[in-house]
Amino acid sequence: xxxxxxxxxxxxxxxxxxxxxxxxxxxxxxxxxxxxxxxxxxxxxxxxxxxxxxxxxxxxxxxxxxxxxxxxxxxxxxxxxxxxxxxxxxxxxxxxxxxxxxxxxxxxxxxxxxxxxxxxxxxxxxxxxxxxxxxxxxxxxxxxxxxxxxxxxxxxxxxxxxxxxxxxxxxxxxxxxxxxxxxxxxxxxxxxxxxxxxxxxxxxxxxxxxxxxxxxxxxxxxxxxxxxxxxxxxxxxxxxxxxxxxxxxxxxxxxxxxxxxxxxxxxxxxxxxxxxxxxxxxxxxxxxxxxxxxxxxxxxxxxxxxxxxxxxxxxxxxxxxxxxxxxxxxxxxxxxxxxxxxxxxxxxxxxxxxxxxxxxxxxxxxxxxxxxxxxxxxxxxxxxxxxxxxxxxxxxxxxxxxxxxxxxxxxxxxxxxxxxxxxxxxxxxxxxxxxxxxxxxxxxxxxxxxxxxxxxxxxxxxxxxxxxxxxxxxxxxxxxxxxxxxxxxxxxxxxxxxxxxxxxxxxxxxxxxx
Length: 514
Fold this sequence. Notes:
Blueprint: H1 2-22, E1 25-31, H2 49-56, E2 59-65, H3 70-77, H4 97-103, E3 107-113, E4 131-135, E5 160-162, E6 165-166, H5 176-191, E7 198-203, H6 215-221, H7 229-243, H8 267-298, E8 304-310, H9 338-344, H10 358-361, E9 362-368, E10 377-384, H11 388-396, E11 403-404, E12 407-408, H12 418-421, E13 432-436, E14 439-444, E15 447-451, E16 460-464, H13 480-497
Parallel strand pairs: 1-7, 1-8, 2-10, 3-4, 3-7
Antiparallel strand pairs: 2-9, 4-5, 5-6, 8-9, 11-12, 13-14, 14-15, 15-16
Helix pairs in contact: 5-8, 6-8
């Protein structure tokens, strides 16, 4: 009898081990305020060999979308749903990816930026993450997160913690990008001693302002941007064309209305601004390399899916103004790249963060999954961040939770990308919709309708994205019936999610430091 019991126990353990082996580990990495063309797999000049390695060994998306802003992107990325109302939290009746993956048998961790609530019950460890270390606010001083922003920038107190413990002191030599990766690697090592697979969200705050980077990284790029933003765009566009990023190369969009002329600017200071930004992206790539090395050393790289993306397009915000007396890069200053560099970072697209033209909502998405995703491939299929949670559930062999915090859940609004990962064709979504701060858009097939609050006059604009990905030719006047159809689709979506209708003047207050 004892031997039969031992046999049953042994068989059960083998079964559990077999199931765990079939469930891959999942690492979801995200940059903050990084433009579409900043990394080398998408035409960038910034040294990013580790992201290039992931692209060479995996799949690149060329039509993948975020929500144009930090909070709304995170709300969708971590829930599989469009943001509700203000979008600065995930409602209790919508399960987070931490809650979904924990129920699917995964250990769960979040390292880095959360930005979806800093009080119970909306903290990461309240919402399904077994381990949490990072920032609950929008951004912070990279060298000393306890240091408040200067008064001219809002003087906002930051919330930095590990699980339910707030952290208020940081050692000399501290740098958030390094620290987030340190904690991620430590967590992975601990998780791999257990029988469960893991889900890790590594949410970097770089290259979000303030511009802070180690001096040795800045030195690599000093002087490389002396030709200006227009030259940088043209060089990136040429690399995109040479690498065949798109089957049909879109046109390079024109100069943005916010961009000022390189001639007459403080060129040495402008070069330093962009060099510091490049150093921040470079440092992130170095840390991704450390994480990849850890996966190899642990022998788990082949059973780990890695996804990398950005939360919105390059940022043109300039808190505190354009003050050339402030030296970018060091802990005592608070600077940003400003409107010209921020726009140029989204080559070849129009606009940037907060706008729902392609420059605001287009993100790189790189996926590596050895033996599952064909190396060195790209796809032009349309995807959206609401698709990430359904994808994670399908690869885990799990179904969405029917209840969340005692309330019945609604069906996920995204759909799995697993078929795309495998090189197959997925049925595209009927519509995708966006809204931030009155900027609105809806995409149906190749057609995209945009309400751009920076345009003069402000009206619905219609673009054929197959022929005109960079939104240069407005066809609204030629197709009024299609405009009406897409307007109705957007209105239905906005009312269902609590987002703004075009032209609305009332609504949420614009969030700071997103």
